[in-house]
Design brief:
Order of helices and strands: HHHEHEHEEEHEHEEHEHEHHHHHHEHEEH
Number of strands: 13
Structural class: alpha/beta
Number of helices: 17
Strand content: 5-15%
Helix content: 25-40%
Distance between the termini: 20 Å
Radius of gyration: 21 Å
Shape: globular
Strand order of the largest sheet: 1-3-2-6-8-7-12-13-11-9-10
Length: about 500
């Protein structure tokens, strides 16, 4: 079989095995993915820019493998990065904004430095919702002024792409890279993963550093892996974890993190698992997606899990506290922008808003009311802290912890859209999305998004419950094998 055919659906393990046995080199793998990007990405617009140094880095890693051996599971593996993650190389970091189209980061982000050390090859930056969808209330998911609109490879222009990491999910789904790194504040990893038939892990906030990542919320932001299999996502997760003194949130992960989560790829745990069904978050589903969720419940039950149906969470309406989020966004973004090179035209949120006004034809296709609202926030630090405590207190007492403790549950099973994911977001709790079915006869929902296409289930648990969620997600994946690649048109 030709390499450009073999590369389709190749996972991290098979790629690494091919390089270890000498049947392929990293350079050959990179070339194959670059060829696919040039051939197919024009249809889905998922890649914002290619790393011009990718092939040279691959050659150097191939030589190193021959002389010194492999660095590990990621040696020579091509990884894509969301465009809000800093890299000290010949790729820009812009959060999809034309205001930062010429901005080069001075240093690698913490996670990029870890991935480089592990031998990953950064293939390029992925398109995204501009400023992680915190720019305009009317901007569609996946749109950026710098990159245009990300489209779903299973139905370009027809199917929903979801959350701000849409380019990262679309590229992996279309086999334009081995895996990718996205970021999430509320649904922006697991949402796109669900809509693109891939696996997304949103880690516990504090498990993975945010240093060197353009922020929204210091209390909710986290990077995380997107891959075509649970195993691939789990391999990446272990390489991302680590305590970073520059990100105080990671201090709580000391002694609670793993640098290798692959031992939890164990299907036997599901026979002892107790999984809750919070029916409130199923109520909006159309008939076809409701059937996908019911089939998932049946699969878990047939595999030996104890299903508790229905679980009641006393916090059902999970709206954002805009005061808290806008305060954190303004403070975090101003800090990030203030450190950029003098050659960059903006160094504050106020300057960004003014830049967009002056470049309105290109920059303000959907306006910037969210940016303006954040700039106008006038909370004091004391008021912010009081609101932040109130923001998380109720879901902590009557949300995930309450439900899991009351019924002695290991996890909750949620549909793969954003409606039920805000509870976990507000508390910084982990989520894993796994492909669950394909809706053929979906309709256009109230927001104009199609409910046709891929759909995933999401497993939710307490802080640092990644090992348990991985075991459940892996068992479900192995029992169902729902994923199939999209039919790509050049």
């Amino acid at each position: 079989m030709k390499l450009n055919e073999w590369i389709i659906e190749a996972d991290l393990t098979s790629l690494q095995t091919a390089m270890e046995t000498g049947s392929l080199t990293s350079e050959e793998i990179i070339k194959a993915y670059l060829e696919r990007i040039h051939t197919y990405d024009g249809r889905i617009n998922s890649i914002l820019e290619i790393n011009p140094d990718a092939l040279q880095i691959a050659r150097e890693l191939d030589s190193e493998r021959k002389v010194k051996g492999s660095r590990g599971k990621l040696h020579g593996i091509p990884i894509l990065l969301k465009d809000n993650i800093d890299t000290k190389d010949n790729m820009h970091t812009s959060a999809g904004s034309i205001a930062l189209a010429a901005s080069f980061a001075a240093e690698d982000s913490f996670i990029v430095s870890k991935l480089r050390a592990a031998g990953a090859v950064f293939l390029g930056k992925t398109n995204m919702s501009e400023w992680s969808n915190f720019m305009s209330s009317s901007m569609p998911a996946g749109y950026s002024s710098r990159g245009g609109q990300v489209l779903n490879p299973y139905g370009p222009g027809e199917l929903f792409v979801s959350g701000s990491s849409s380019g990262s999910a679309a590229a992996v789904a279309a086999n334009l890279g081995a895996a990718s790194i996205g970021t999430e504040t509320a649904g922006s990893i697991v949402g796109p993963a669900s809509q693109h038939f891939v696996v997304g892990i949103k880690p516990t906030v504090g498990l993975v550093s945010r240093t060197g990542i353009i922020p929204i919320s210091s209390s909710q932001d986290t990077p995380g892996p997107i891959a075509r299999t649970v195993r691939g996502a789990v391999i990446l997760l272990g390489e991302l974890t680590g305590v970073d003194e520059m990100d105080p949130a990671t201090l709580v992960s000391d002694g609670r993190l793993y640098q290798d989560y692959t031992p939890f790829l164990d299907t036997s745990f599901l026979k002892h698992a107790r999984i809750g069904i919070p029916r409130h978050y199923y109520r909006h589903l159309d008939d076809e997606r409701r059937a996908i969720m019911e089939a998932a419940i049946d699969t878990l039950r047939n595999e030996g899990a104890t299903i508790i149906d229905a679980v009641i969470l006393h916090v059902e309406q999970q709206n954002w506290n805009n005061d808290v989020i806008t305060y954190e966004f303004k403070k975090g973004l101003n800090s990030y922008l203030s450190q950029l090179a003098d050659s960059v035209p903006i160094h504050s949120l106020e300057q960004l808003i003014e830049f967009n006004i002056n470049q309105a034809e290109t920059a303000l296709r959907y306006g910037q009311d969210t940016l303006i609202r954040s700039e106008e926030t006038i909370l004091t630090e004391r008021t912010y802290l009081e609101k932040k405590q109130a923001y998380s207190e109720l879901p902590l007492k009557q949300g995930i912890d309450y439900a899991l403790d009351k019924d002695k549950l290991d996890a909750l099973l949620l549909p793969g859209d954003v409606d039920g994911l805000y509870i976990a977001a507000r508390l910084g709790y982990p989520l894993i999305s796994v492909p669950a079915g394909y809706a053929v006869n979906g309709k256009i929902d109230s927001e104009g998004d199609s409910t046709k296409g891929p759909f995933g289930v999401v497993f939710s648990g307490k802080a640092f419950s990644e090992p348990t969620l991985i075991q459940i997600a892996y068992s479900f994946e192995q029992a169902t094998q729902h994923r199939f690649p999209p039919k790509m048109i050049p």
